[in-house]
Design a protein that fits this description.
- InterPro entries: ATP-grasp, ATP_grasp_subdomain_1, PreATP-grasp_dom_sf, PRibGlycinamid_synth_ATP-grasp, PRibGlycinamide_synth, PRibGlycinamide_synth_C-dom, PRibGlycinamide_synth_C_sf, PRibGlycinamide_synth_N.
- Keywords: ATP-binding, Ligase, Nucleotide-binding, Purine biosynthesis.
- The chain is an alpha+beta fold.
- It folds into three domains: about 80 residues, 3-Layer(aba) Sandwich (Rossmann fold); about 70 residues, Dna Ligase, domain 1, CATH 3.30.1490; about 240 residues, 2-Layer Sandwich (D-amino Acid Aminotransferase, Chain A, domain 1).
- It has 13 helices and 23 strands.
- The strands form five sheets. Strands 1, 2, 3, 4, 5, 10, 11, 16 and 17 form a nine-stranded mixed beta sheet that branches. Strands 12, 15, 18, 19, 22 and 23 form a six-stranded antiparallel beta sheet that branches.
- The longest helix is centred in the middle third of the chain and has 21 residues.
- The radius of gyration is 21 Å and the shape is globular.
């Protein structure tokens, strides 16, 4: 097949790597891609939210499947757009409908969905500027810490964990009255803080059948020991030792099955990936959030562990034949370290030259995934974003995988780079 992949991050480089390694891929185009995808596929300069432009490209290049990496095109309705056009209606687009994408596009919507289908989650209430006084009164009734979530998309930065009632009230005012996260915080979900161990579970679904992919634990904070500002993700580990068979059975029975059945019951078209952010509290799963695509950087740790053909998986999802797909997983551990530009997640510089890449990634103990990178006219790789690269180490266990990842990280250099040196250390402590 000729395949078009939308996106430009580390997740999309990992997707591209997996897709081109399939015998079922004739040609892969990535829009807009990065310096890493340029080594595997043909990058094309398309806007991921210009659906008319994407449609023209798909028809001109005989594209037979479109894979959507990030959430924004899904929330804006790219699947519905393709389905409404007779020329593209039969081309599988891997992602949910606009209604299905509201599972990520609106925290309030997803919380109501969970309540309707008895899916375990934190108690919560939603407020707008019109009833902000009720929100402030609600905060007074809560135990600290208190979680505030912007209702809409906020690039992974719309969640605040407030340690005091005073901080929570000030933050609520900033979000609702001062548009701290723009339109995303015109509604705010205030919810109970769940104290447990966080992990991410990934599900592939065609709307009726599902396959559970390898789980992962990611690290959101910029600073070591989980301190500082939230980011899009600073690292990931897969598999997760505290997600044993008994726990994952509970996840499937209490979360995955009710979610897929709930989507069916409400006639929500959902063909794609469902990322379920979970908290393990005393061996019981609670849903923190849904995302309607694979996570970043978890994808870079999860995809290497899928042994069966990835394009077959995508095609089975897109043609509603997932029940006939047999997923096979690798037994090894993968750990991902994200390398970022200095200053991220605040202000950071772009355009720095990245050195050391030519000597790395040849021995199958580590994989190099580009995120915020681009090529200049001399074909040199430059930084072009906050999260610049994700290095995935492969090993028999967490310790070996981390050693391989960090060894590769040490060979890559640009001015003012930063990465966390404690990824996976909490898991190693749990295993002792």
């Amino acid at each position: 097949m000729n395949i078009l992949l939308l996106g430009s991050g580390g997740r999309e480089h990992a997707f591209a790597w997996k897709i081109v390694n399939s015998q079922n891929c004739t040609k892969l185009f990535v829009a807009p891609g990065n310096a890493g995808t340029a080594q595997l596929a043909e990058n094309v300069n398309l806007s991921i939210t210009d659906f008319a432009q994407i449609t023209d490209f798909v028809l001109a290049n005989k594209i037979e499947m479109v894979v959507v990496g990030p959430e924004e095109p899904l929330v804006r309705g790219i699947v519905d757009y393709f389905e409404a056009n007779p020329q593209t209606a039969n081309i599988p687009v891997i992602g949910p409908s606009k209604e299905g994408a509201r599972m990520e596009g609106s925290k309030d919507y997803s919380k109501q969905f969970m309540d309707r289908h008895q899916i375990p989650t934190a108690a919560s209430e939603t407020f707008t500027k019109e009833n902000i006084e009720e929100g402030i009164a609600f905060i007074d009734q809560q135990k600290t810490p208190i979680v505030l979530k912007a209702d809409g998309l906020a690039a992974g930065k719309g969640v605040l964990i407030c340690q005091s009632h005073h901080e929570a009230k000030d933050s609520l005012k900033e979000m609702l009255l001062e548009s701290k996260f723009g339109e995303a915080s015109s509604k705010v979900v205030i919810e109970q803080f769940l104290d447990g161990i966080e992990l991410s579970v990934f599900v592939a679904t065609d709307g009726k059948s599902y396959k559970i992919l390898p789980e992962a634990k990611d690290y959101k904070r910029i600073g070591e020991a989980d301190t500082g500002l939230n980011t899009g993700g600073m690292g990931a580990v897969s598999p997760v030792p505290f997600a044993d068979a008994a726990f994952m059975r509970k996840v499937e029975e209490r979360v995955v099955i009710p979610t897929v059945k709930g989507l069916q019951k409400e006639n929500i078209r959902y063909t794609g990936f469902l990322f379920i952010g979970l908290m393990n509290i005393g061996g019981d799963p609670y849903v923190i959030e849904y995302n309607v695509r694979m996570g970043d950087p978890e994808t870079q740790a999860v995809l290497p562990r899928i042994k069966s053909d990835f394009v077959d998986l995508l095609h089975a999802m897109g043609t509603r034949q997932l029940d006939q797909y047999k997923i096979e997983l690798e037994s090894f551990t993968s750990t991902t370290i994200v390398m970022v530009a200095g200053g991220y997640p605040g202000d950071y510089r772009k355009g720095d030259n990245i050195s050391g890449l030519e000597h790395l990634g040849k021995d199958n103990t580590a994989l190099i995934f580009h995120a915020g990178t681009k090529l200049n006219e001399k074909n040199e790789v430059l930084t072009n974003g906050g999260r610049v690269m994700a290095i995935t180490g492969i090993g028999h266990n967490v310790q070996e995988a981390l050693a391989n990842a960090y060894e590769t990280v040490s060979g890559i250099c640009w001015d003012d780079l930063y990465f966390r040196k404690d990824i996976g250390q909490d898991i190693l402590r749990l295993q002792k």
